[in-house]
Design a protein that fits this description.
The chain folds into 3 domains: about 110 residues, Butyryl-Coa Dehydrogenase, subunit A, domain 1 (Orthogonal Bundle), CATH 1.10.540.10; about 110 residues, Butyryl-CoA Dehydrogenase, subunit A, domain 2 (Beta Barrel), CATH 2.40.110.10; about 150 residues, Up-down Bundle (Butyryl-CoA Dehydrogenase, subunit A, domain 3). The protein is built from 11 helices and 10 strands. The strands form 3 sheets. It has a 4-stranded mixed β-sheet with strand order 1-4-5-8. It has a 4-stranded antiparallel β-sheet with strand order 2-3-7-6, with helices on one face. Strands 9-10 form a two-stranded antiparallel ribbon.
Length: about 375
């Protein structure tokens, strides 16, 4: 297996860099200040086929694969991880529908998701420790006419701007998380409301809020896979999230080390650039190495996906590595720039706030060590 990019993947990556420079650089500071959802930019993502990168051509997708997806996510994240986060959560919903959807579900949903006519969102977590557990858990009650969804989904990215949600709900209170099912829910469904948006530390511009379900009715045709497939759908889709969010983290880290290196060459102390100091060189080298190793790991996991091979363990390894070193990348680069790096007039504070979200927002309680150890001890 090669983890080197093909010519097509390199061109897609360059297209993402060009896109980021043209569309994201002019607005990223204002978006970070206001937190306003970048609707016009999301339309441009769709126009570039970025919202349907890995989807099948018969549904309007680009069929470029998952390596291309993480390449785009990384390059967008170098400028705006918030915009990349909008794209990632959309991709999770699209992935779940393409992977487990019925022919009719795919035909109905995927062309709109690929074209950006509808933005997707993947709603997994609740305010309790585990989906399907606790007083606020989203419950799906079977009725003659379909299913009634009641409860809350927490911290849903793209909440309020998505047109279609893939939602995990518990179908048997006694079984709890073991009875999860995944439903496709139209954002306009009666009884579905969006809570007040969260004021997040970083990734500002990517909406996040709770979804409140008050006896939202869906038919049997809304279920992805079978009524007991929710746990498998959650596990595999969150593994994709780990890979895609690793690409976000690497993009942020790469932007930070490049900015710090450029600063070090121009900052003069004791009559010479600080780039000549061994301590500065060590900090920059460690961040560059962490970015490189993480990039190789996430590309390998994405290539496994493209090849149709199991990828859960590799995704967990990437998540574990960046949970350990992601924030350290920004700590080290801020140290290079010193007091200036700590100032909000520089980009590093924004990158620091954003990188926290890429390692915390998905599966914060699902430690990747469990997946890795289970594979080793099987």
């Amino acid at each position: 297996m090669s983890i080197l990019l093909t010519e097509e993947q390199q061109l897609i990556g360059q297209s993402a860099r060009d896109f980021a420079k043209e569309y994201l650089e002019p607005m990223v500071l204002e978006m970070d200040r206001t937190g306003q959802y970048p609707a016009a930019v999301v339309k441009q993502l769709a126009a570039q086929d970025f919202l349907g990168l890995f989807l099948a051509g018969e549904y309007g997708g680009a069929e470029a694969g998952y390596v291309s997806l993480v390449e785009v996510v990384e390059n967008l994240s170098r400028v705006s991880a918030a915009v990349a986060s909008i794209m990632v959560n959309h991709a999770l919903a699209a992935y779940a529908i393409q992977r487990w959807g019925s022919p009719e579900q795919k035909k109905t949903c995927l062309p709109k998701l690929a074209a950006g006519e509808v933005l997707g969102a993947f709603a997994v977590f609740e305010h309790g420790p585990t989906p399907g557990v606790g007083a606020g858990a989203l419950m799906a009650t079977k009725l003659p006419e379909g299913w009634a969804l009641k409860g809350t989904k927490a911290f849903v990215r793209n909440a309020g701007v998505a047109g279609a949600y893939v939602v995990l709900a518990c179908t048997d209170p006694a079984a709890g998380a073991k009875s999860l099912a995944a439903f496709i829910v139209n954002a306009k469904a009666s009884g579905l409301t969006v809570g007040a948006p969260y004021e997040t530390m970083g990734l500002k511009g990517c909406p996040m809020a709770d979804l409140v379900f008050d006896n939202v009715m869906v038919t049997d045709t809304a279920i992805l896979g079978g009524s007991t497939d929710g746990s498998a759908i959650m596990t595999e889709t969150l593994a994709l999230a780990s890979v895609a969010e690793a690409a976000q983290t690497v993009g942020i880290g790469q932007a930070a080390v490049e900015h710090a290196a450029a600063y070090a060459k121009t900052r003069i102390q004791f009559g010479r650039p600080i780039a000549s100091l061994q301590a500065i060189q060590t900090l920059l080298a460690e961040v560059a190495a962490d970015c490189h190793l993480a990039r190789l790991g996430l590309r390998y996991a994405a290539q496994l996906m493209d090849d149709g091979e199991p990828f859960l363990v590799e995704a967990a390894m990437v998540k574990q590595f960046l949970a350990r070193f992601g924030a350290k990348m920004l700590i080290d680069t801020v140290q290079v720039e010193g007091g200036f790096g700590y100032s909000e007039t520089m980009p590093l504070p924004r990158l620091f706030r954003d990188i926290a979200g890429t390692t915390l927002l998905e599966a914060p309680a699902d430690y990747p060590e469990k997946t890795i150890a289970a594979a080793l001890l099987a």
